[in-house]
Design brief:
elongated, 62% helix, mainly alpha, single chain, 2 domains, 5 strands
């Protein structure tokens, strides 16, 4: 009997390994297909990450494009890029693709470990893994070089260890969890909002050592964060970089987030089993303790609440990208876990009732709906990526308008410290020339003024400055060359259909 159980466990582990390996292989294949035209998707953020890695490699310190202090983003992702580049000797874009393949694999592994940890029914575990594999939102993140691709697997490791250690949280384990929060913060600032989960686990456990463990966790987590914030203040007078005020209030941010939850499908469908569970408990069809239910979902639920609350509050205060799949996706897998747990609880408590067949059919319909929607969206999304590119700079649209500067001009601009551009990220991608951003009227995605006309005359450095202008003047945040002529001497020195380069001097003509 023992021998049979051992063989059965071996078979299950083998099946688990095969399913996980196939999922990872399929995910990597889809990633390679989605990035087949121009390579991995690149954005302005990506180019800033690469710029920091480049400047660190050149010994210039923690500075971004054009030598400006690197503050808007934490340095963790750039440091990882730099480490992989130095270790492998590969170019930056190959490094980014390699990182995404590694992080994609890690995400599948940690996701399945968490599913196995919390969900007993094998079918539901495989269903959860399959849903992640075909989720359009997953590839909407992973075909790009986003810091989320590193943040998410580290967060999943943190979630897994929280569950594993919850009933035996030694001081050494508190230290490990605290260090993971520090890593999360230095990959994405939002990572710090998960710190209260450690305090929750501490107060769940041994009463005698609560205070000591809380102090240890606070010092290890908050001291590096405080030092980095003070460094930012010293460098640029701002803790997390200067952004404009958000154009959305907290209510509007929450409403915008529903677009993403609808796009994910299952968070909305999750309301059905949740409602059934409450109704069955209220009608005394089942006798289940909500304390038991909460114990099964408390850690992922608290993580979800902390992350979403932090995201909603930060995006309602400061101007970021409009709240979208990328910014919210760290909550996707914990939400999926809660969805699977609810389905399993319903099965355990309603499978023997008179309406068992009806409930089974209803549950299957709930599970099939996101699969159908996801596959339909995937076909359209991957067709677009194959034809036009992965996204951002890696698309037909951006590739067609890259500035085509000759070598002499590029060499000249690289030798100057006073180069500006209305699109420093695109210029850096096309030429590897680092430039500061030209003066902008408004902050990105905000109606707050960034550089007023009264302060415009003080923006450029004394002497000769270069402005590389790309694109037209319509819908432009930056002051156009024509507008700058009112405050400076502006001379066109080179131009093409894709760019114009200007020399800019003070009005008095002092060099």
């Amino acid at each position: 009997m023992v021998h049979n159980n051992a063989n059965s466990n071996k078979r299950l582990k083998l099946i688990d390994g095969v399913v996980l390996a196939l999922s990872i292989f399929t995910g990597i294949t889809l990633f390679l297909i989605g990035t087949s035209k121009y390579g991995i998707g690149l954005t302005g953020d990506t180019m800033n990450y690469i710029a920091l890695s480049t400047n660190l490699l050149d010994g210039q310190g923690f500075v971004g494009l054009g030598g400006t202090p690197f503050i808007l983003w934490p340095p963790g992702y750039s440091l990882i890029i730099l480490f992989v580049k130095v270790f492998t000797g590969l170019d930056y874009y190959t490094v980014l693709s390699l990182l995404n393949i590694l992080s994609l694999s890690s995400t599948f592994i940690f996701s399945y470990l968490i599913f196995r940890q919390k969900v007993e029914l094998l079918f539901l575990r495989y269903y959860g893994l399959g849903l992640l594999l075909i989720a359009p939102g997953f590839y909407l993140v992973w075909v790009f070089a986003f810091s989320e691709t590193v943040f998410i697997p580290v967060m999943l490791l943190f979630l897994f260890l929280c569950e594993k250690w919850r009933d035996d949280l030694s001081t050494k384990r508190v230290v490990s969890l605290s260090l993971l929060i520090v890593v999360l913060f230095f990959v994405k600032y939002i990572g710090i909002v998960l710190f209260p989960l450690i305090i929750y686990l501490i107060y769940w456990g041994d009463k005698k050592s609560r205070f000591f463990k809380s102090v240890v966790a606070s010092i290890i987590t908050l001291l590096p964060v405080l030092l980095w914030v003070l460094r930012n203040y010293y460098s640029a007078g701002s803790p997390f970089g200067e952004r404009g005020d958000s154009i959305y209030n907290i209510f509007e941010v929450k409403m915008i987030s529903t677009e993403t939850f609808l796009y994910w499908v299952f968070p909305v469908l999750m309301l059905v089993p949740l409602s059934v569970l409450f109704a069955a408990r209220y009608l005394k069809i089942i006798d289940i303790s909500f304390t038991h239910v909460f114990y099964k979902i408390d850690i992922p639920l608290i993580l979800i609440i902390l992350f979403l609350s932090g995201t909603f509050i930060s995006t309602s205060i400061s101007a970021f990208d409009r709240l979208n799949n990328r910014l919210l996706f760290p909550a996707f897998i914990p939400l999926l876990l809660v969805f699977l747990i609810f389905l399993e609880i319903l099965r355990e408590n309603l499978s023997n009732g008179h309406n068992r067949r009806f409930l089974v059919v209803a549950a299957l319909i709930l599970m099939v709906i996101p699969v159908g929607v996801y596959l339909r969206t995937d076909v359209r999304s991957f067709t677009t990526r194959i034809k036009k590119g992965a996204g951002g700079i890696s698309t037909d649209e951006y590739q067609a308008k890259l500035p085509k500067l000759n070598r002499e001009i590029i060499k000249k601009l690289m030798s100057e410290n006073n180069t500006y551009s209305n699109n420093p990220e695109l210029l850096f991608y096309a030429t590897f020339v680092q430039s500061k951003k030209s003066p902008r009227k408004f902050f990105y995605n905000s109606d707050e003024i960034e550089v007023s006309r009264e302060n415009l005359s003080k923006y450029f450095n004394r002497g000769r400055n270069y402005l590389v202008w790309m694109g037209g003047n319509e819908n432009e945040l930056s002051y156009t060359p024509e507008e700058l002529e009112k405050y400076f001497r502006v001379s066109l020195i080179s131009s093409d259909s894709s760019y114009q380069i200007y020399e800019i001097f003070e009005q008095n003509g002092q060099n």
